[in-house]
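Lecture 7 notes: from sequence to structure.
We start with the chain below.
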Amino acid sequence: MPPLPAPLADSMTNLTPRLPKRERTRLQLIDAAIQVFSARGVMAATIQEIANVAGMTTGTVYNHFSTKDEVVQQVALWLGDTLCRRIADSQANISEGAERMAIGNRRYVWLAEQSPQWALLLLDVLAAAPKVLMQLRDYALVDLQLGIAQGSFTVASEAAAMDLISGTVTQAMISVALGLAPANHGSAIATLVLRGLGMAYDEAMEVASRPLPGFADMPVAVVSRAPRGAHHK
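Predicted structure tokens for the same chain:
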């Protein structure tokens, strides 16, 4: 796998010695699983291969994960929640739901632009871990509800709106990762999502074209920490 974009690399790959030994081992196994999944695909990967890449026994793997499905769930949570929290932290000073929604949409497409292999791996593990995918939707749901409360969005169904957001952004990531999208695809996708949520075209385009906030420095994430129910995407 190529290196992650710099803003994400430290929080996803730095195994700090300050973590307890069991947590460090767990992170090493997740890192090994990421390598195996990226090389072999989620479906073809085996626990033995993960153990081999980590330089550990299969017994050690099973001390931390009861099944391969649990490994997949934790990799999906590690990748998806870390990205979502980095995006949420970058939005700390932004109070407009519409702009927060656009930033989230654009950052996922940005990942596909910066590191296509990581974006496709993220989509692969999330497809194999749909419960984690539904947890991560809470990030976007809070921004959707904020935009509705502020009068920026008008939707008949929050559930339908969430499917619109998730489906559009997922397909955009695939198109970008495969080199099939034009330049500035992230802003164009965010504009269409905002339009789908009820904003006028000119307003949606202006919001979706604002400069993206930078990523702030943050400590290393702890992989066993589940996503909170009120995160932003």
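Points to note: The chain has eleven helices and no strands. Residues 218-233 have pLDDT under 50 and may be disordered.
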